[in-house]
Amino acid sequence: MKKLCISSVLACLALFSLPAYGQWKPAGDKIKTKWAQEIDVDNVLPEYPRPIMERQDWMNLNGLWSYAVQPCGKASPASFDGQILVPFAIESSLSGVGRTLGAENELWYQRDFSVPGKWSGKRVLLHFGAVDWKADVWVNGIKVGTHTGGFAPFSFDITAALQKGSNRLTVKVWDPTDKSYQPRGKQVSSPEGIWYTPVSGIWQTVWLEPVPQRYISSLKTTPDIDGYKLTVQAAIDAPAAGDKVEVRVFDGERLVATAAAINGQPVEVAMPEDAKLWSPDSPFLYRMEVSLCSGGKVQDQVQSYAAMRKYSTKRDDKGIVRLQLNNKDLFQFGPLDQGWWPDGLYTAPTDEALRYDIEKTKDFGFNMIRKHIKVEPARWYTHCDRLGIIVWQDMPSGDRNPEWQNRKYFEGTELTRSPESEANYRKEWKEIIDCLYSYPCIGTWVPFNEAWGQFKTREIAEWTKQYDPTRLVNPASGGNHYTCGDMLDLHNYPNPEMYLYDAQRATVLGEYGGIGLVLKGHLWEPDRNWGYVQFSTSEDATKEYLKFAKLLKDMIAQGFSAAVYTQTTDVEIEVNGLLTYDRKVIKLDEAALRQINSEICNSLK
Would residue 314 count as lying in a domain? Predict the structure, then answer.
């Protein structure tokens, strides 16, 4: 009886403490995924957000925050408009708001938190998975940092701003969408056709993490299967003389190898000559334990993982330059994956949903995904690592577009960017490569797509290759074409076509397909939809897919070394997905696709 009374009192207090603007619910009347119903506002995306470098202690700050929209330049709001569910963009249904921000406004967030007592004596880091686009952050009214860039994670040490008991976190965001030069991908102020709803504000997990006074701030892991070596570079915050970084590598629970280094040197781990190699058919991951030691004691320790794998190109016995994985020819074939959700826009409703698209890609018999002008949360790449999918990672496009000269081979028109625009592109591209470098799944960097914001192509491609020589570089998917990087990438809709060929680089079909099928009850806008070609039945759409796939298969012997089919899911008014936008219907015959896709993926083995 006593427990019942206490519970009742607490429940009453909770009710009285709720803001006057009430409880959260999804906004709008658009279609939603099944996972939207599974959201618990007190436990939103509860999984550890950075599995490539994991510590045991952390605190998730996702959930209901107060929000306000104000004209640019105004001071912190005296009152708020309501509640927003973080980490869903304000324009999304799952935010509970469903409102366009606009370049003339700023979005303010606020929430309170308390630091656990067991964190006493530790430094406290505030992490943001991603915020689009410019974020200013305060803790207890003290400015702790600013970040620009909508796709890369960032962190601030907030220790000196913390106080005992409750702490107040305030975030201000400005996002001009397509009114400025920043990378934005498919977002536009007025969505239509292949252009989608804006995404503004926090769209990935916000979290706190306690760390020692000196700690491991990042890892850069590089496998070398030819030299039987794994190199781990651990960045140390506040390094000291005598610091030792130790790396232990495990196959399950079995210790496979160990090595250490001091004086900031990378740790070179000698791997066994029979080390297990990572591939889509066998995505084996070694577990890693990385420790920072000083004075004979472990100061910090993180859990990570790595894979032994190699991406390269090589001319085959017919003189065709092929993509290789682990020194063997592999035809890489997969869907163009936009990574959009009808309810969460950039943000999947749950981790199960995030994983689902990758699982279906494997079920369809593909071995690759082209992540199209978007960067995903860290967990998406870990799912690809674990499931065995190669990723072509696009740089999100931005600024303006020069003339697209798709069928001209040499020296297409390039954009002349302002110094600010160019500097921002370089900054964000470097941040994206830095945060994704250690994920084994990423095989190709794609700096530009179809001349969208394309500038200084040779220089950007060469910088990308120099900065990360372990991956392939696709300099401009679909043109404008320049003789640089590792591949020539053609786009052709709807059918596959090899209208150009490069004898010095790999020739790939970076986009084709776009077979549309309208399914009522699963449409973003019932009266407005679009596809490159459209069919009225799944049977007819499947027949067209198989026809294209057989054409593609024949072109492999002629010189194609990879291909990308458009696309994984419907997106907004595009209806050319293998799945509906709400992920409730597989639109084409999965078994038939799996058979032909597997034949294509295995064609060079």
Answer: no
* Inside any domain, residue 18: no
Residues 399 and 224: their CA atoms lie apart, in Å, by 37
Whether the CB-CB separation of 219 and 52 falls below 8 Å is answered with: yes
Q: What is the CATH number of the domain that holds 166?
A: 2.60.120.260
Give the CB-side neighbour count of residue 597, counting CA atoms within 13 A. Answer: 25
Q: Is 593 exposed, middle or buried (0-12, 13-18, 19+ CB in 10 A)?
A: buried
Last residue in a domain, options 162, 194, 211 = 211
Contact 552, 499 (CB under 8 A): no
Range of the domain at 226: 215-306
CA distance 209 to 57: 7
Q: How many CA atoms lie less than 13 Å away from 259 in the CB half-sphere?
A: 15
22 pLDDT band, cuts 50/70/90, is low
Is 42 in the same domain as 173?
yes
Give buried/exposed letters for 73-110 (b at 16+ CB in 10 A, else e): eeeebeebbbbbbbbbbbbbbbbbbbbbbbbebbbbbb
Give the CA-trace dihedral at 345, 347, 352, 353, to 10 degrees: 20
Per residue in 138-191, pLDDT (tens digit) is 999 999 999 999 999 999 999 999 999 999 999 999 999 999 999 999 999 999
Q: Judging by DSSP bridges, how do beta strands 472-473 and 506-513 pair with one another?
A: unpaired
Q: Are residues 106 and 241 in the same domain?
A: no
My answer on whether 334 and 271 are in the same domain is no
| pTM over 0.90, yes/no | yes
Phi-psi region at 499: left, alpha or beta (left = phi > 0; alpha = psi -120 to 50) = alpha
| Closest residue by Cα to residue 184 from 428, 406, 354 | 428
Same domain, 157 and 47: yes
Same-domain check for residues 151 and 52 = yes
Contact between 288 and 232 (Cβ < 8 Å):
yes
Kindly state whether residue 452 falls inside one of the protein's structural domains.
yes
| Cβ count within 10 A of residue 18 | 11
- Pair 227, 193 in one domain: no
Residue 546 phi, psi dihedral angles, 5° rounding:
-65, -35
* Spatial CB neighbours of 491, under 8 Å, sequence gap ≥ 6: 406, 450, 477, 478, 479, 509, 510, 511, 512
Helix (H) or strand (E) holding 18: none
Nearest Cα residue to 512 out of 495, 530, 500 = 495
Calculate the alpha carbon distances from 404 to 61, 242, 478, 496 in Å: 43, 55, 9, 19
Same domain, 186 and 248: no
How far is C-alpha 294 from the chain's CA centre? 35
CATH number where 532 lies: 3.20.20.80
- The domain total for the chain is 3
Q: How far apart are CA 282 and CA 293, in angstroms?
A: 34
* Structure confidence by residue, pLDDT tens digits, 98-131: 999 999 999 999 999 999 999 999 999 999 999 9
Give me the DSSP letters along 414-482.
Answer: -----HHHHHHHHHHHHHHHHHHTT-TTEEEEE-EETTTT--SHHHHHHHHHHH-TTSEE-SEET-S--
For residue 567, what is the DSSP state?
Answer: -
Asked whether residue 78 is domain-assigned, the answer is yes
Do 567 and 472 share a structural domain? yes
Q: Which of 179, 211, 243 corresponds to the end of one domain?
A: 211
